[in-house]
Predict the structure.
Amino acid sequence: MNYDLLSEFLLAGVTLGITWHNLKSRPGVAIGTLIIGLAALLGALIFAGVKEANGPHAFLALLAGCAALPLLALSLVWRDGDLATRLRASVSFFIIASAVCLWMTDVLQFAAWGQIIPALSALLIMLGALQSKKLTAILGGLILLGCFALSLLQFTIDPLDSEQQLHILLSAALLLLTVRANQ
Amino acid sequence: MNPILFAIPVFLITILFEAVLARRKNRVVYDIPDAVTSLHHGVLSQLAGLVFKLVFIGLYVTVYERYRTVALSDSSLWVWLFAMLFYDFCYYWAHRFEHEVGVLWAAHIVHHSSEYYNLSTALRQPSTTWLFTWIFFMPLAVVGVPPEVFIGVGLIDLLYQYWVHTELVGRLGWFDRVFSSPSNHRVHHGKNDYCIDKNYGGVFIIWDRLFGTFEEEREDETVIYGIRNPLHSYNPLWGVMHYYHELWQASRQAVGWRAKLGVWIAPPGLWNDAGLAHLETAGMQRFVWHTSTAVRWYVAVQYLLTVPLIMHCIGIGEQLNALQLTLYIVVLVGTMQVLGALLNMQRNAYLLEQLRTVALGLAFYLSPHWFGYAAPATVKIAILVTMLGSAVWITMISKKPAGAA
């Protein structure tokens, strides 16, 4: 079974589902998950044999970590803020964060930016989840932190490799973090 | 060779032509201080480009090399046509966000700060767009548009927009419906209620029609050009920085770090669900600083005398080392600042101008070469005489009682 394709599809399906569900009420969450979803969709295309999707997948994956995930974190923690509730603010934040990301990684050659920002975003999401005292959110935050930690430690659960594991855990985390978040 | 070098003489000749034509039609289209300030911004933008254009193009090449989908051919006409269309689409969104996001508006506001609308306004280009705006064009690199094609279509898009900055061309029928035209773009530069955040298209206006930002020029309401909080200054560096300063002040006053950061991402005027405040344009007057006619003409002549230096700097900028380039930029920016100070009638402006002309003349005459250009003795003497003559001229102007000119 092609677990690569399946795990990418799972992540794409979950994130794009969250996007659809939140497009009107929480554009910050929607834009954040949309970018992650598009990156996953392109990843699925690669494993389906479309090798041309390699470049765009890597590009969107970089922006997903450095711009979409911080947007998602800020939107989840401050649910009534402009970033969470205004489409224009969410898109503007994403664009500026993407520009900063490319400046840092490609102009200043500070490659660690691509790891520091997603890690900080995950921590912020966890803090927000703890503050909200919602079980689903706390569980989601823990899985998110866990999946980054496992990825960093190169620890995998058979028969999955680290990428597949990341995609599956990320799907679960995002689902738990966003489900009933309005309540 | 920088293609803008070839365009500069064409720009100056067409500006002169438009000014003469407007005068013959008894239309007030030009104001010397305003036009000179526009040209100053054009130069500042090119000087900033000397430093940052390579970084921007380097970024495009990096993204193209690392993340492209396919490598499109740079010799196919279809690729060029596709790239032109795609570039203009990205330009539409870049331009729209430049108007709708505070920190991007801070860069772009320069282009809208003139209260006149003429060909010189087209050259009033921002100097700090390199900060963020380039990100909007990265999709071209990801799709696989080769850097040479990207640079080419970017230049075509930029140069196309020159001619639409005029009041002397009326409506053009079907052309206005497909392309960005003088009529469409006049609306874009207006500050009337109906003009705000409209007609962003660079070459094609179809994007505005598609995304709901198109507005036709109205015959029953004169377009009033400029920004709603007028700049009221001919200082070029202040023109570049003033909105950043405004954002900084707003950010300092905001309470809490989220609000402080939010100021930079919010639209100009911050989030305002009540909509745009009405601006009464009937009877509105343009900004007139009572600079004497003698000073106005003096500054215009000095600007023309500086053009060869500007062209030389842009032409050889990439060959100079960092120190030489910085020094050359300081000389040119210093010149524009002093000319701006003269137009603003600032205290000490006459003294500064006397010092500038004498120092520039002597530096050119005494140095063995001017940033790599070994001038013949006749040219050196001619420039020394011109600059000393300018010093005498400005001294004579400064001795005239105010309002005598």
